[in-house]
Each structure stands twice: as structure tokens, then as C-alpha cells.
From TrEMBL:
Organism: Donghicola eburneus
Main location: periplasm
InterPro entries to which the protein is assigned, alphabetical: DctP_fam, TAT_signal, TRAP_DctP_sf
Lineage summary: Bacteria, Pseudomonadati, Pseudomonadota, Alphaproteobacteria, Rhodobacterales
Protein name as it appears in the record: C4-dicarboxylate ABC transporter substrate-binding protein
Gene3D superfamilies named in the record: Bacterial extracellular solute-binding protein, family 7
Location within or outside the cell: Periplasm
Length: 348
């Protein structure tokens, strides 16, 4: 075989072995910074974002590169993430509206007690609710997705929670303002801080327990700091769920060529919200497995007990309707629509 033929075959082999996309000729390459509060091993980073980033890079034929910065590596605190993406400190972020209470009230609505079925269905509900009522909440950003986690559980260092009396005097990290008020109505002493501070709070005795879904437990090894988990009986709504927003800097999005914006558009929207929710249901199952394998005790809060807790949550819902009204929104309509969508999803 002559050298020219050998060289041509070698080049062909290299081309066939190359990745599915290559850097496109005559196209500007865009590098985006994705800022996340959770540590790198957390499934949101290691599973979801890893795949989503790969999907976008492939769809854009290498025109978009996304660099992930976990554990707040670009600086600041988790409550600052929504402002960071608006200001261009990062290009994409994933944030919790409840970390800046009352600032994004429509996005917070599904963080009220008993406004969750599972993560997949409730994430679709949240996206629809934001489309219908929350379009003005994230001005200056391109909204990519909205979602929730599965219903939260109560993790404690000593003893199961099976009645409201078991909560009296207990120091708990509340997951958000609204759920904290309900727990206080049952006699608990609540504090609120981001999940990233959970290890310190449990280790130094500031709190006796916390409200969290299973999915986040392994990332912070919380199964080693709590020994008991109390979960509502299945089939009804969950105790609570926090809400999340996946956001992109509007200038960064608008500054990209049409085909690169299309790669973002094709991997965002209600389909992505549903996909994240489904992923979080899978994360929940894996997190529970870690808790069980650690030998922790899991107990069920009876459905009748949960119904009595829901009565204590009614004033919290009423107060939220008034907050929405004070912002010029129709609070009753927003809450009614959320419940309608949740009930329809539960029946499907």
C-alpha cells in the first residue's frame, strides 16, 4: 500500500472514530458558566447536569460549551444565585425561590405545605403555573425550566415523628417559610438556612432534625447525622416540596446565533421541567436506599394524622393568598389553579 493511500485510510478511520460533533467551521464558539450550590457528587450535578450539558453540546455541534461550577465556586451564597445570573456573574444557574422569601411569589406557591404529589407531576404543574401567572417574575433572564423535588420527609437525630405532639419543642430546620409556620403551629421551634449549611447545624446541635427529601441526603452524608426518618403515608399529597428555577442570562442567550439559541430552546421548556422532575423521583429512590442501607429507622405518619396537620396548614395558605393579592396578583385564582392541576395530575 502506498503512503498516500495509507494516509487517506488513516484519516478516514480517525474521522469515523471522532466524536459525533466537531467544532464548526466559521462559527463562534460560546462558553457558558453554570453555577450550582451543590457539591460535584450531588446527583443534580453528576447525573442531570452532566447529561444535559452533553446534550446541548452535541445538539450545537460543539458551538456551545458549558462549564459547571459546583459548590458556589464562583463566589457568593445560594440566595444570590438569581441575581448572579441576571447580572452575568454566571450564564446559567439553578436556584430555589424560597431562598429569597416573597421575592418570586408565584414560583414559591408550590412550596406551600401539601402542594406536591411526586416530583415529575408537580414539576409539570409548576411550569404551567409559571406560564400562566409568573411570566414577570424573572425579568432579565431566560427561564429554562421549573421543577420541584418529591415530598419532603422529617429526619431527626432521636426518635420518630408520628404525631404533632412529637414535634413540640423540637428544633427543626424548616425547608421554607410557609412549611416552617405550619411546623410552628404544631409546637416545633424552627430555623431556616440553606441546605449547604445543614451539616454544621446537625453536627453542633443547633437543630434536632430537618425537613428534606431523600434525594439530597447522600450528598451531605446526612444519613450519618440523623437516625430516624418520618414520612407521610403514601397515596396522598406529600408534606411539602421546594421549588426550583433553571435560569439563563438573557443577554447571553440573545447574543448567540439563531442555531445556538435553538439548541438551548430544544433542551428547555416544559419537557425539560418534566424530565428534571422524573429524574428527581429517581434520585429520591436512590437516596432512600442509602438511608435504609445505613440502618436508619423509617416510620410512617398515618393518613389520619396528616389530615389533621393539613388543617393547621390552612391559615398558611390563606396568608399566602393575601401576599399574592398584595403583589397585584389574584391569589385565590393562583392557588385554585395549582390545586386543580395537582388533582388532575394525581388522577392521571
Amino acid at each position: 500500500m502506498n503512503m498516500t493511500r495509507r494516509t487517506a485510510l488513516a484519516s478516514l478511520g480517525a474521522a469515523l472514530a471522532a466524536p459525533a460533533f466537531v467544532r464548526r467551521a466559521n462559527a463562534a464558539e460560546v462558553t457558558l458558566k453554570l453555577h450550582c450550590m451543590l457539591p460535584a457528587p450531588a446527583p443534580m450535578n453528576s447525573v442531570f447536569f452532566a447529561q444535559w450539558i452533553s446534550d446541548i453540546e452535541t445538539a450545537s455541534e460543539g458551538g456551545i460549551k458549558i462549564d459547571l461550577y459546583p459548590s458556589m465556586q464562583l463566589g457568593g451564597k445560594p440566595p444570590q444565585l438569581a441575581d448572579q445570573v441576571r447580572q452575568g456573574i454566571c450564564d446559567i444557574t439553578w436556584t430555589l425561590p424560597v431562598y429569597t422569601p416573597d421575592r418570586f411569589p408565584v414560583a414559591e406557591t408550590l412550596a406551600l405545605p401539601y402542594m406536591v404529589t411526586n416530583a415529575e407531576k408537580t414539576s409539570v404543574v409548576m411550569h404551567k403555573l409559571m406560564d400562566e401567572f409568573g411570566q414577570d417574575e424573572y425579568r432579565g433572564t431566560k427561564t429554562l425550566a421549573f421543577h420541584t423535588h418529591d415530598g419532603g420527609k422529617i429526619h431527626t437525630r432521636e426518635g420518630l415523628i408520628q404525631t404533632a405532639d412529637d414535634l413540640k419543642g423540637l428544633k427543626l430546620r424548616a425547608p421554607n417559610q410557609a412549611t416552617g409556620k405550619m411546623l410552628e403551629n404544631m409546637g416545633a421551634e424552627t430555623v431556616f438556612f440553606p441546605v449547604t449549611d445543614m451539616v454544621v447545624g446537625l453536627s453542633n446541635g443547633v437543630i434536632d432534625g430537618c425537613c428534606l427529601p431523600y434525594e439530597v441526603v447522600p450528598a451531605f452524608k446526612l444519613q450519618e447525622l440523623t437516625k430516624y426518618t418520618s414520612a407521610p403515608a403514601p397515596a396522598g399529597r406529600g408534606l411539602y416540596a421546594n421549588t426550583f428555577s433553571l435560569l439563563m442570562n438573557e443577554r447571553a442567550y440573545e447574543g448567540m446565533p439563531d442555531d445556538l439559541r435553538k439548541a438551548i430552546d430544544d433542551h428547555s421548556g416544559i419537557g425539560l421541567s418534566e424530565r428534571i422532575g422524573k429524574q428527581f423521583d429517581a434520585f429520591e429512590a436512590k437516596g432512600k436506599e442509602v438511608v435504609v442501607n445505613n440502618g436508619n429507622t423509617i416510620g410512617e405518619i398515618a393518613a389520619e394524622e396528616i389530615e389533621s396537620w393539613r388543617e393547621l396548614a390552612a391559615p398558611v395558605h390563606d396568608e399566602w393568598v393575601q401576599k399574592l393579592n398584595d403583589r397585584g396578583l389574584d391569589g385565590a385564582a393562583i392557588l385554585a389553579r395549582a390545586n386543580e392541576l395537582l388533582d388532575a395530575g394525581q388522577a392521571s
